[in-house]
């Protein structure tokens, strides 16, 4: 089992580093051009992968938003997104909930008239 791990761990590290290298934007790569980093990771899997992870890519602090210098846009939940909440208010002002009100009225009519038969066949 240990022999398998000694083979799989460096292989997984090399695959991860290579995919990370080729999918990184050119402006986020440091010290050498992207093709040279990719060749280094492929020719020297262990040393190339470790050097790529340590020195090859500009790392952004975890959780840093674009306003804090992180550069990546963060996903925001709908209830925390001011644009989404504003669009809900505009939809309500336009009358976008009329369909829900109509369904609610039909349900209340059905509750008031329990003897009414809603069977469309008329049996």
Globular, elongated, flat, extended or rod-shaped: what is the shape? elongated
Structural class: mainly alpha
Order of helices and strands: HHHHH
Nearest-integer average pLDDT: 77
Helix content: 55-70%
Count helical runs: 5
| Distance between the first and last residues' Cα | 72 Å
Give an overview of the whole structure.
With 123 residues, the protein is an all-alpha fold. Helices cover 59% and strands 0% of the residues. The chain has 5 helices and no strands. Helix 1 packs across helix 3 and helix 2 runs antiparallel to helix 3. The longest helix has 22 residues. About 5% of the residues have low confidence.
Overview features:
single chain, 123 residues, mainly alpha
Helices and strands, with pairings:
Layout (H helix, E strand, L loop, with lengths): L1 H22 L10 H10 L1 H12 L25 H13 L3 H15 L11
Summarize the structure.
With 123 residues, the protein is mainly alpha-helical.
